[in-house]
């Protein structure tokens, strides 16, 4: 970890003053976000402008969707990260992912059409999910805060490179599984990985299980090696907050200033074993189900990602060559977690 990072905890940042405050408030929030992403790559964000009621409703829809019979869900499968993906469909480095998902993209993205359940099966599901795309507004505010932290000119501004907002989000359901299965070695909820876009907003229920790499614990930035040698710390659910993290492209764009921290999903922390039960256990037999909703932002495909002004100078040279975002995203989407 950077020597200026004096806290091991993921900072909780109140975004209210950025959305509603003075120029000075905005600058202060921008500077705290910048510092947090430099140290941790992850923040909790409160007062982010997305109503709790909307988020509760989204999780309710997700429960209803995954409660459909398998046969109906399978009719919504596709090969392009839209629609349904069944439990165990994804494999990452020999690990089977014990999750099912439903992917939605920007309704305006005609190159990747969405797949919806028939209206008679889940009336109003589609309308809700299309509206949930409003999270895009928060992504743009966050990009504005990062542009402010770097003092970028309006032509360099990050929001201007996300004009088409070709973002996507997933409803994720991790079904309840025998705990032993998750310890058997080749089955995981999500193995260690980092996201490949710019920013991810993550909404999670109160079950827990998301963990991020403890950056001081292994001398590597590779997910596969971290899996063997690194240690992880819990990103416990905090009511009323979104978790926000940096993806590979924004790490690279910032010349490594903001960290795209490796994370994974495991079973939640064990509860205390009951002492007065007839059958005391130290390990829960069943890992409870969990729901989450990650919302992924990516730059416009024609964007060239190259170290931003303020992220390099004569002493801190550019670490990477310029890269075409669209080509990179096409390659990454073929093999989702790296
Ligand atoms: O479910 C979660 O908490 C994390 C999901 C995630 O990391 C991902 O989909 O990239
Ligand atoms: Fe992720």
Automatic annotation (TrEMBL):
<protein>
    <submittedName>
        <fullName>Related to gibberellin 20-oxidase</fullName>
    </submittedName>
</protein>
<dbReference type="GO" id="GO:0016491">
    <property type="term" value="F:oxidoreductase activity"/>
</dbReference>
<dbReference type="GO" id="GO:0044283">
    <property type="term" value="P:small molecule biosynthetic process"/>
</dbReference>
<dbReference type="GO" id="GO:0046872">
    <property type="term" value="F:metal ion binding"/>
</dbReference>
<keyword id="KW-0479">Metal-binding</keyword>
<comment type="similarity">
    <text>Belongs to the iron/ascorbate-dependent oxidoreductase family.</text>
</comment>
<dbReference type="InterPro" id="IPR044861">
    <property type="entry name" value="IPNS-like_FE2OG_OXY"/>
</dbReference>
<feature type="domain" description="Fe2OG dioxygenase">
    <location>
        <begin position="162"/>
        <end position="299"/>
    </location>
</feature>
<dbReference type="InterPro" id="IPR027443">
    <property type="entry name" value="IPNS-like_sf"/>
</dbReference>
<dbReference type="InterPro" id="IPR026992">
    <property type="entry name" value="DIOX_N"/>
</dbReference>
<keyword id="KW-0408">Iron</keyword>
<keyword id="KW-0560">Oxidoreductase</keyword>
<dbReference type="InterPro" id="IPR005123">
    <property type="entry name" value="Oxoglu/Fe-dep_dioxygenase_dom"/>
</dbReference>
<dbReference type="Pfam" id="PF03171">
    <property type="entry name" value="2OG-FeII_Oxy"/>
</dbReference>
<dbReference type="Pfam" id="PF14226">
    <property type="entry name" value="DIOX_N"/>
</dbReference>
């Amino acid at each position: 970890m950077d020597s200026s990072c004096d806290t091991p905890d993921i900072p909780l940042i109140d975004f209210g003053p950025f959305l509603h405050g003075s120029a000075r408030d905005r600058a202060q929030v921008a500077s705290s976000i910048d510092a947090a992403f430099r140290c941790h790559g992850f923040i909790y964000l409160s007062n982010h402008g997305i109503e709790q009621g909307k988020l509760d409703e989204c999780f309710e829809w997700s429960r209803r969707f995954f409660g459909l019979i398998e046969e109906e869900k399978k009719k919504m499968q596709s090969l392009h990260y839209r629609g349904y993906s069944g439990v165990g469909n994804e494999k990452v480095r020999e690990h089977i992912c014990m999750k099912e998902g439903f992917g939605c993209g920007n309704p305006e993205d005609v190159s990747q059409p969405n797949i919806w359940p028939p209206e008679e099966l889940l009336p109003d599901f589609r309308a809700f999910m299309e509206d949930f795309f409003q999270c895009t507004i928060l992504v743009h505010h966050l990009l504005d805060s990062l542009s402010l932290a770097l003092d970028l000119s309006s032509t360099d501004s990050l929001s201007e490179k996300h004009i088409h907002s070709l973002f996507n989000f997933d409803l994720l359901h991790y079904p309840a599984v025998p705990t032993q299965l998750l310890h058997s070695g080749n089955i995981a909820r999500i193995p260690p990985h980092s996201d490949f876009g710019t920013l991810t907003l993550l909404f999670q229920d109160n079950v827990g299980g998301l963990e991020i790499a403890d950056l001081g614990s292994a001398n590597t930035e590779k997910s596969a090696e971290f899996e063997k040698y690194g240690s992880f710390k819990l990103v416990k659910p905090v009511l009323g907050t979104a978790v926000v993290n940096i993806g590979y492209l924004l790490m690279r764009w910032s010349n490594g200033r903001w960290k795209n921290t490796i994370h994974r999903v495991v079973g939640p922390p064990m509860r205390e074993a009951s002492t007065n039960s007839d059958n005391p256990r130290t390990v829960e037999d069943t890992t409870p189900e969990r729901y989450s909703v990650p919302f992924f932002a990516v730059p416009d495909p024609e964007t060239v990602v190259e170290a931003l002004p303020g992220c390099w100078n004569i002493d801190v040279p550019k670490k990477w060559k310029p890269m075409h975002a669209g080509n990179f995203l096409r390659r990454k989407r073929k093999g989702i977690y790296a």
